[in-house]
Amino acid sequence: MATIKQINNSAEFQQLLTATPAEKLIVVDFFATWCGPCKTIAPLYAQLSSKYPNVQFSKVDVDQAKDVASSCGISSMPTFQFYKAGNKVAEMKGANPGQLLQYIKQYQGDASGSEGAASSSAAPVNYGVPGHSDLTEFITPNQMDALNQQEEHNVKNIFKNNDAYLESDVDEQLIISVPFNQPVKLHSLKIKVPSISHAPKTIKLFANRQNLGFDDIDSIQETQTIELIPKDFEENAIINLRFVKFQNLVNLVIFIEDNQEDEETTKIQQLIFIGSSTESTNMGDLKKEEN
After folding, report:
1. Residue 80 in contact with residue 96, Cβ under 8 Å?
2. Which SUPFAM superfamilies does the protein's record reference (predicted)?
3. For the whole model, what pTM was predicted?
4. Of the candidates 71, 66, 60, 72, the residue with the CA atom closest to the CA atom of residue 28
5. What CATH superfamily is the domain 5-107?
6. Is 72 part of the annotated catalytic residue set?
């Protein structure tokens, strides 16, 4: 598991630049504890540090390490700087997840050595949909939730590239809430299941809805209802959505009403979201206000 290195002074910062192998990308997050966008992007930054172990991730608290912030010319937070062989190769101001990821992919070089998580640093798969790819990198799994899930077979399993799966508990219904860490355009879904008999049948999608419970489903109009059939779970199959209904999407609620063969529980092995990021995600620079 990769870790984020905390830099406390100029000596530690210089040590970071000189001791890190020349071919290895260094990302430095200049943040402040009072900075709202810094807090917003922090979970994604932590997730990326595990997803890209071939990259050295570090953080600098600008109030605790003023000498480092000053020498690096930091004037707004968050600011991300990118270094290779001791030299700065790029800088990004603002909490823009898409741009952060783009810089990491651009400058990381050889991505070998990444730990075997699904959707690693390899190029995103487009699943045969031109202009769109796997959106897993825009989801923070620990912020997802599912109602009526089993404790062992929970929603985090649907992002693991193995035999783990999500399973409903007391009956076949599930409500899955998926928060995206930046606005996206959702084109289609791909669902992998351990068995067709336990596969979802009727699903209702609610765009930009949060905190929906089973009592709310019938009183709120869904964005789209889909009736799935066994061929929708074949290896090369994708489930097309009404694309125009899922623009600027920041949260998706999926209600699974029943399964293919009226089994007691529903099982999902992997849930893949196919789409693209939007360009209107830069939260801009945040200047520290003087009191």
Report:
1. no
2. Galactose-binding domain-like (SSF49785), Thioredoxin-like (SSF52833)
3. 0.59
4. 60
5. Glutaredoxin (3.40.30.10)
6. no
